[in-house]
């Protein structure tokens, strides 16, 4: 077979130059970074005086030998490999773009296409080179052990594993692996631990066969010198994500039992008995290494995992006593050094991300010490945030919503925002937002409503607290918590009796209970499943007429007018949460058979009261804004209003100078009267017919937030969950309402446990 494509002398010269041109000693870590020293001598990865070295974020150890270690990191999209000397921390940037390690040695393998060049970094000398294209078959690489290349090809539809090396004269030596079945499917190779005991190089191979179509898995111990299997062990549940290790006394590997989770299998070499220890739930590849009488195990990739498991922790277990020691909070690569110690790309909550060394401490137990820091914290931290403001939030100006955003140093977090109304305890909960892709923020928008208890209700004005909780999805480190407070302030709306900026639908039951149902809650959903009426008290059955005049006087909140059965008119001033004690306006109001309130027909910014007597004359009571005398003396508007059986003040429907009216004649035709601003109205405009079936026409205001006033119609005699119909405002004086939308609102009609639902209780709707 021919030699490698690149000459041995040219490659050796290139490596020698690379070793001579170093990038200098790595800088010492900040003094604030604490380290743990294993013993008194300088350990691999740092000098005794220097403390932890520094490397770029994302640096990973690839292999470790007696004189140094191989690491890699990204610079933009370019992968860079470096060799760092243990003695003084001097770093050499290696030429080329791809390298592998020969575990436990100073040998690095430079990969150029099908050519593999083995270089001893302690001397800079090329010690072997292979071009698999010259091997006489299509070979796939499996492993490097010492200066031996382990590769496989297919012969007669069976996979053959070969160990390639060079003899003393540089000639290629090809040894076929013997001792495994011809139909073995090779899954994984691991190298045995090298130690100062002079134990021969060994190799573990995990493979599976299917005799009689029954899967069977084995672990085979291979002597590298002879390329022969010297021991085998049954390994049920072994798979490609299993790991294995061997020492002069033991062989260990991980299994995935059919019951789920991960198990550790330990056998003494030469024995036929295997001890199996269930480890628990695992979601990724595992790692297992032997350090004397200890086995070190864990799952890899915990730092970026979106699942939590105790197996993210790299843990050591004594083969003698069963004692366990937690070493690192997570690990991504684990390599074994020549002295049996481990170099691990990992992180801890206390010291952050970097490369750690695991070696026996003064008690003989394995202990981890930080050798290289990348300056990246392992704990979840906030990189940027747009939190709720600390002052007043005008949800009207913000489109009814509040936008927040957080970014973190890690994407594997679940984030939850809870906004709570201080007075009522009602809240909005974003629920846990799933982990994002890297560098994508957690954008959370509060839509200005409550969920949970009070689901769908627009949030009240007033004081709020908020709490953002970010939990590491991998379970590593503490939660990140941010909190604050703000005040919601919306403009007061007519027909809004619970101070949340949304007009309400008032329902009085046969028992005299008055309740406000939020318009956005019950008029703009297909079906409302949770009732949250705002109770306005009992005793309202004494009134034969209840009116919603908007803000008639005094406080900025909408008020109520009630006419009792003796003809006395009473004013209830709104407080935002209910009403003050009623105040008497005056008697004699029984002469009117139709009352309408809530439109500013005079154009002075105050709502007025219109009353029609039995003779059909309409009278205007101009609003004054005075608490003691909310209306001026009456002024005659005109006659002929006795042709109508229902008159409703709608506010401004179509942009005219003042508030408007709708009136239904006795034939069921609905007409609009646009206010001119002087207390009179333009010529009426026909809307449509067919309105006679409705018992009540309610000018509820803008129920859907589009800036136009709407009309709610209620048919008491229709025993149906669609007896409430919403006519949305259009803004057009010629056709002020869109087609009616029947609200299939079963709970609103039938299911309220307090007896205040619409169905069958003789209610009135306002």
- Low-confidence spans: 1-49, 195-199
- What is the strand arrangement across the widest sheet? 1-29-28-27-26
The termini sit apart by: 98 Å
The tally of helices reads 3
The total strand number stands at 57
Radius of gyration: 41 Å
**Describe the biggest sheet?**
5 strands, mixed
Structural class: mainly beta
Q: How would the global form be characterised? A: elongated
Overall average pLDDT: 86
Proportion of residues in helical segments: under 10%
Strand content: 35-45%
Protein described:
The protein is mainly beta and 766 residues long. The strands form 14 sheets. A five-stranded mixed beta sheet has the order 1-29-28-27-26, with no helix packed on it. Strand 20 and strand 21 form a beta hairpin. The longest helix is centred in the first third of the chain and has 13 residues.
Structural topology:
Blueprint: H1 8-20, E1 53-54, E2 60-64, E3 68-75, E4 78-85, E5 91-93, E6 99-101, E7 107-112, E8 115-120, E9 125-131, E10 140-145, E11 148-155, E12 158-166, E13 172-176, E14 185-191, E15 202-209, E16 216-223, E17 228-234, E18 244-246, E19 250-255, E20 262-268, E21 274-280, E22 286-291, E23 294-299, E24 314-318, E25 324-328, E26 330-336, E27 342-348, E28 352-360, E29 366-373, E30 382-386, E31 392-393, E32 402-408, E33 413-421, E34 427-429, E35 442-446, E36 462-472, E37 480-488, E38 504-508, E39 514-518, H2 519-522, E40 534-535, E41 543-550, E42 559-564, E43 569-572, E44 583-586, E45 592-599, E46 608-613, E47 618-621, E48 635-638, E49 644-651, E50 660-665, E51 670-673, E52 685-688, E53 696-701, E54 710-714, E55 724-727, E56 741-742, H3 746-751, E57 764-765
Parallel strand pairs: 1-29, 31-37
Antiparallel strand pairs: 2-3, 3-4, 4-5, 6-7, 7-8, 8-9, 10-11, 11-12, 12-13, 14-15, 15-16, 16-17, 18-19, 19-20, 20-21, 22-23, 23-24, 24-25, 26-27, 27-28, 28-29, 30-32, 32-35, 33-34, 33-36, 36-37, 38-39, 38-57, 39-40, 41-42, 42-43, 43-44, 45-46, 46-47, 47-48, 49-50, 50-51, 51-52, 53-54, 54-55, ...
